[in-house]
Amino acid sequence: MAWGRKKSSGRREPQFGLAASLAELRLGPRDRIAAADEAPKKPPPKRKTDDTDDDTPRERKPRASRAGRKRRSRGRARSGLYRLFYWGAVLGLWAVIALVGVIVWVGAHLPAIQALEIPKRPPTIEIVGLDGSVLATRGEMAGANVSLKDLPLYLPKAFIAIEDRRFYSHYGVDPLGIARAAVANILHRGVSQGGSTLTQQLAKNLFLTQERTLQRKLQEVELALWLERKHSKSEILELYLNRVYFGSGAYGVEAAAQRYFGKSAKNVTLAEAAMLAGLVKSPSRLAPNRNPEGAEKRAETVLTAMAEAKFITDAQARASIGHPSYNVKAAGAGTINYVADWIGEVLDDLIGQIDQNIVVETSIDPKLQSVAEASVIDELAAKSVKFNVSQGALVAMSPDGAVRAMVGGRNYAESQYNRAVTAKRQPGSAFKPFVYLTAIEAGLTPETIRQDAPLDVKGWRPENYGHEYFGAVTLTQALALSLNTVAVRLGLEVGPKNVVRTAHRLGISSKLDANASIALGTSEVSLTELVGAYVPFANGGQGVAPHVVNKIRTTEGKVLYARPADQLGQVIEPRNAAMMNTMMQETLLSGTARKAEIPGWMAAGKTGTSQDFRDAWFIGYTANLVTGVWLGNDDNSPTKKATGGGLPVEVWTRFMRSAHQGVAAVALPGSQAGGFFSNVVQAASQASAPAVSTPSPATSPAGRPAPMRTSVRPEAASGLDGWLVDRLFGR
């Protein structure tokens, strides 16, 4: 390869001649040096130095004019505004899309549009006593709807002043109110104010639940806007006043005024109106029957708000604050609520679903109910600590099975558990009358002799209360003194299954175990069914079904239910019922219930004490009333030797004496008063005849009387008549 040089061009070009191979096209060392020499020289980069070190004057650019700078500044401002407008529009668009999405989502979870009508007020159940007086109210206690124009002007204004002062200027939602509440809550670091309008509160009460969720709050807003579009302000305010909850089961101003003041909402004073408006914030906490001081303080706040809103003058506010005219009625939280709850449980069986206001006419005697309540509560208050007894129950029935009084516990406010209906406990010896009746129906008599002696039933050894045995005794004596061995012998003699059949025939509905121990009341029963099973003894043997509802009608008077007559018929032969009455009279005269006495009345009954003194019973009756009392502890713990012949008899006697005041005495079935007393007189006239001495009543080491051994003349009547002769003549 040969290279040629052109000096004129200053550049060497390769010359391709007769090169033998491509290898000869490579640059050699000499060629590289020459190329480098001929390349143009770049000036070295200037070194940056401080102004103090650089002596060379710098080249200065010409300064822009003031007008140019203004133009560039305006351009940058326009560009910034444009960007701000652009992104603002984008964000606004997305916000609108999000808002529409939320509205659609919330609306999708609202009730169907056809369901968005003002719902009917839930039905009210009014429970009345035998005399027509109102005993209790169930469901929502609602008074009649009142028109806004019929109310005093200050009543609705009180609600507006304290709940929604901008009510007439917003459209269902008050942004200013929400902002004010938010600021107040932030300052107080908690929820001190609410931002809901009256319309929002109405929407919640009518259509929504009380849950506190964002979804419910958004639904509330949508429904408030719908209500404002659908109804006028006056209609919304009237609906609100007739539906808002005021505590103690009262819905609407009319029901609240009746509950707390005993008057119509049309007649409330300014101070009373302020208290009603103040209740809305917290009905359960500020109800005047529970917290009168809190209710009055809240009412003062309402009066101050009314004065600030110029609804009333400062003088009117001060006058009402200084002289409140509250007349709060006592709440119906007594034991009658046990009855009301029981009625609520049976209504569905009687009339089905309730879709209108009804009145339930009951068999409850309000006077007897008050006496029953006082008897249980007062006796427990005096002696519950001594006997370690925390609870009690009482049921009183007329001879047709109608419940006249019921106490399901000592304090309904603390415990709504109905120990008279729901609780099932061992009746102990109170079950023995069914054993003795079965024996009487098998041919035995009250004078039949049986042995009171130790007994072994496949390893089970029942004992008497005092661990004492009296040998040969009559059935009357054995029942009066509640001798366990005799009851077990009789039960085995007639058969446990027959005893169970007898108890079920008389009205026991609980499951009973047909074993040897059934004679001692080891199967559990309720107080109500046990009392009902005693009723045939008091009415001559007629079966009854315990009941409390006589009639159910609408408030307009349409009868929905009327109780039919019982069809159980004769469950005890009258002769056998008379013998049982004679036997159980001895329980009160000489047996375990000697403290039970009703002046001028013949009474009979049976005590009962379960194992380890866990339950104490007494079921006693006259021809007028059958009453049962149970005492014990809910946790089934033992009492301090509380027996049926002790505290239960005292409760029973206190109630029955009051219940029989002013009532003409009637003899028990099978014991005519004339024949009874003439027998006593006849026996007394023969008192001068020589007496045949028999052992007198003894007392066991445990303090219980031994079987009765009366000392009477041979010509005198035996049994009860003989006992009366001894009492009359000091024997």
Description:
There is one protein chain. The chain has 731 residues and is of the alpha+beta class. Among the domains are: 4-34, no CATH class; 124-322, Penicillin binding protein transpeptidase fold (Orthogonal Bundle); 673-728, no CATH class. The protein has 23 helices and 16 strands. The protein has helices at residues 29-38, 66-108, 154-163, 175-188, 198-207, 214-230, 233-243, 253-261, 270-279, 283-286, 292-308, 314-322, 336-351, 366-387, 432-441, 475-480, 484-494, 496-506, 527-539, 574-589, 647-659, 673-685, 720-728, and strands at 4-6, 11-13, 124-128, 134-139, 141-142, 250-251, 358-362, 391-397, 403-407, 449-452, 471-474, 549-554, 559-562, 604-609, 615-621, 626-632. The strands form five sheets. It has a five-stranded mixed sheet with strand order 4-3-7-12-13, with helices on one face. A five-stranded antiparallel sheet has the order 9-8-16-15-14, sandwiched between helices. Strands 1-2 form a two-stranded antiparallel ribbon.
